[in-house]
Prior knowledge:
Blueprint: H1 3-27, H2 29-37, E1 41-46, E2 49-54, E3 63-66, E4 75-80, E5 83-86, H3 88-91, E6 97-99, E7 104-105, E8 110-111, E9 116-122, H4 128-141, H5 145-175, H6 180-193, H7 197-216, E10 219-221, H8 224-229, E11 235-239, H9 240-244, E12 245-255, H10 263-275, H11 282-291, E13 299-305, E14 309-314, E15 317-322, H12 324-330, H13 336-347, E16 351-357, E17 360-371, H14 375-382, E18 387-391, H15 396-406, E19 410-412, H16 420-429, E20 434-438, H17 444-449, E21 452-456, E22 469-471, H18 477-512, H19 518-537
Parallel strand pairs: 11-18, 11-20, 18-19, 20-21, 21-22
Antiparallel strand pairs: 1-2, 1-3, 3-9, 4-7, 4-9, 5-6, 5-8, 10-22, 12-17, 13-14, 14-15, 15-16, 16-17
Helix pairs in contact: 1-19, 2-4, 4-7, 5-6, 5-7, 6-18, 6-19, 7-18, 7-19, 10-11, 14-18, 18-19
Amino acid sequence: VYFETAATIITLILLGKYFEAKSKGRASTAIKKLLSLGVKQATILVDNQEQKKDIKNIKINDVVLVKPGEKIPLDGEIIEGETSIDESMLTGESIPVDKKTGSLVYGATINNQGAIKVKVTKIGQDTVLAQIIKLVEDAQASKAPIQKLADKVSGIFVPVVITVAILTFVVWFWLIGSSFEISLINAVAVIVIACPCALGLATPTAIMVGSGKGAANGILIKDSQSLEIAHKINAVVFDKTGTLTKGQPAVTDINTASHDLTTSQLMGLACSLEASSEHSLANAFVKYARDNKLQLKATSRIEAIKGKGIKGLVDKQEIYLGNTELLKNLQVEANAVYKVAFEDYASQGKTPIYFVKDQQVMGVVAVADVIREQSKQAVADLQQDIEVYMLTGDHKLTAQAIAKDLGIKNIIAEVLPDQKVTKITELQKQGKIVAFVGDGINDAPALTKADIGIAVGGGTDIAMESGNIVLMNSDPTKVISAINLSKKTFSTIKQNLFFAFIYNIIAIPLAALGFLNPMIAAAAMSLSSVSVVTNSLRIKRAKI
């Protein structure tokens, strides 16, 4: 009788399943962590009275009070107070973000400093946290192409193993003439050792850990196919505005050689004029005034001069802001210093503006879409083994100036939004595997057309439907992290499949030849599954 063999085989397999379940539990901790981030209760204000309420009972437009150290319960807009907020659960970045009245905040982020009142704008499944959880769940449930191959192999593997087990019994019993016992034990050893669990676990466990690692670092992978393709990318196309640059014009340079007017006086007049206008660059001046605490003056008779600039009365003084055409119109000549400054700013890809007062040029102000601090590093790192392209609607000279500053050699300029798809297609026809990086809103067609669409945003909805991969903040170095994560995950999948196949290739002949006792076969089979899951867990510690 072989009671001890049957008992040991069952014990070893159950033990293997236990370790496997424990390891798989660790692999899916990303979802558990995300779910645990949510808040159960919040303090709402009703007629300025504080009331505790369950999250599920809070409605849109309710006002929530969030004290220092508390988690923000739901997505909303600050209507009173200033603070800094730890948004690391969204973006993967540990540096707190300063917030003030009008700023958007997101559920499960942590209020570090001041007490704030937040008007709720999103609840339930519409919140950013809920969308992140859904994306991670979908990614972990989806099947990568390589997994479909492994599933097909498993489908063939099972009948082949049963056939090998029957042949093992036939050979040992009839051809070799061994006893029924030995023949049956060897056949059983073949079946036990050849369980295709390791093969079935090879891909999903790596995908599960990889997508969880991405979520912890502010990189949301929408489907496992994207995780598989990303490591093959050999061309990255960046949309300039909002990805490589901040997408918000800012005053970058002020040149005033006049002794009659200081920089602060000139900018006080210029900002006052712009703040009352509908000029396309007005926001840059308004931001400058706010950041430098300039006192805005009274304005009147503001008038746009089409294609040339604006004019108006500021503190009863007539002020003009505009380009070279405006000077011709006013029959005003700029001195040599200002002409050189104007041309120099233009050659750098900035928008220069003449400041005219009392029928003479008194200064030049340059406005530009500022390059992100991390953009140069991202481009330099990518260009080590990937071609980088910059796509923009800007004039060629402006694009060249910005590209030169970033160190990008490949420029696609003067492209209208509907032409972006054509440019992506042209690169794909050259045999390139293309990733397109855009803000996910006006770039939706190009994001869809590229082999991998990477939508960049600041923790909002950021058109999650457009990209295959969503970066929760606007740091372009996260593109490299996403590619590195893909490389690590895919290499782990290949290692897992190799271990699963090589184990079966070596073990099945040994079992068929009678070298493996079924108990040893059961232990080896259990350990093979555990080893595959443990190998997948190494992705958690990988540097991306």
